[in-house]
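Hi there,

I know you've been waiting on this one. I reran it after we fixed the sequence typo, so this is the corrected version. Both the input and the resulting structure follow.
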Amino acid sequence: MTIKPTMTRWNGRFVWAGVIAPWMVLGLGCQSATCETAADCHTEGALAPGQESDCQNSLCVIRDAQVPGRDAGTQVDAGTATDAGTATDAGTQVDAGTATDAGTQVDAGTATDAGTNPGTSCTELPHDPKLGTLKLHASFVSAESVQFPQGMTAITAVPSGGSFKLYGVRGSNKSLYGLGTWPEITPGATALQQIAAPEDRASVIFPSNFLVNDGSRLLAGYIKGSSNGDGKVLVHDLAAPANSVYLPAPGIESAIATTSSGASAFFVSAMGLEKLGSTNSDPAIHALKTQTQPFQAMTLATFAPDWSAIGGISAMTANGIAVFGYFSGADIQEHLHAVPPSVYAQALANGTSFSLADWPEIHAGNVEGLLIAGFGNGLAVHRGTLSETSNEVDTERVLRIPLAVGTGEVPTVNAGQAVSLLISEDSCTNVTLLVPMGRDLLVGVSDKNGKRLVRLREQQQ
C-alpha cells in the first residue's frame, strides 16, 4: 500500500486501513496526530520507504522524504530571495504556490508572496491587528483579541457566570490545561490530567483535535498509534477530578455535548463505546448519557448503508440543532446533516436510534480544509485548499449557515442562505481553529504578526 498525505490530515482526521481506499489512508488508524515539533511524530513502522514524518500546523503528517538541494527557495526554485509561493514551496521552474499566485506563469514575487498583486509581499500588505488580511461580513463584528495560548491544539469554552473559562489540550505532553477566564488567558503551569489512560501512557498516542464540554465536564479523545482505530475518550470532571473516567471509543472522530431538553449527554462519532453497551462495529453516532453514575451509552444515529460512511466532524448550535457529519466512500465527500433537538431528546429518553438519512443535508463538499463549529443559531464552515507539497491549508473563506427548527407538527430543520463570514483574498492570513463560545465564535487567526484568538459576534440589530 502506498501511503501519502491526505486532505483529511489538516483537520486532524485519519482513516483506517481497509475501511476506505488505500490512497486516503495514513495507516495508523488514528484520528489526529497533534504535535509541536517533528520529534513528536513517531509512527512505529507506518512509514513506507522514501517517506518521513513531519509536524505542520500542529499536526503530524507523512510526506515524501526531502531530498537535499530540492527545498523550496534554494537551488531549484523560480523565485529570488524568499520563495513567492504560499507556505512551503515545492520549488520547480514555475512557482509552486497553490491558490492564487502573485505573478503570472513564472514567479513574480521577491520576499513573501502576497498571493494577489505582483510585487506585493505579505510583509508589505496592511494587516488588521485582529483579522489580518481577512475580510469580515458586515453583519458581524470582531470583539476581543488575545494571543493564542502556545502549544494548544484544541480549545473549549465553559460558561462561568457571565463569562467563559477556557480549557485546552497541549499537544506536546498530551494533557488538559486550564487557560483562564476570557479574555484574561494565561495557561496554567500544571496540567489538569493526561489525555491518555494510565495503561496507554507508554504507547504512542494521537490526541483528537477536539475538546468539548457539557458545562461541568470536558471530553477529549485519542487513538493509539499502530492500531486499527483503537481509541479512548477521557471524561474529565471539573468539580471532582477523581470522578474522571477513561472509556474505550474505537474509531473516535469527533464529539459534541448537549444539555437541552433536560438531557445531559455527549454525542460521539465513533465505532462504539465499548464497556457501556454501545458496541456497534460500524461507524455511527453514539450517546454517552452523563445524568447518572455510572454513565450509560447507546447508539444514537446510524449512517445509511449505501453511503459507505465513516464518522465525521460534528457541531452543536446555540438553538440546540445537532450537526453530524460523515465521510462518504461513495463520492469522497464530507456530508453534514442537521437534527432538531426534539428528535435526539426523544431518542435519548427512549433508548432508541434514528437514521441520519431522515434529516436534511445542509452542506457537502471536499474534506480539504474543512472545519465546523456552532456560531449562534447557525453553523460556521471553514473552506480552504491544501497544498500537496506543504500539507498546509490556505483559508479561502468561512461560511455561516443559519439554522432554525421548523415550526410545523413534524420536526425539521430549515437552513437559511449561507453568507461568507470571512473571506481571504490572499494567502497572508489563515484560520486555524473554530471554537463556539456561547452565541459567539472564537477564531484562531495566523499571519505575519503571530497567532491569536479573536471573538466574533453578530451585529446587534
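Quick highlight: The two ends are 56 Å apart (CA to CA).

Best,
R. S.
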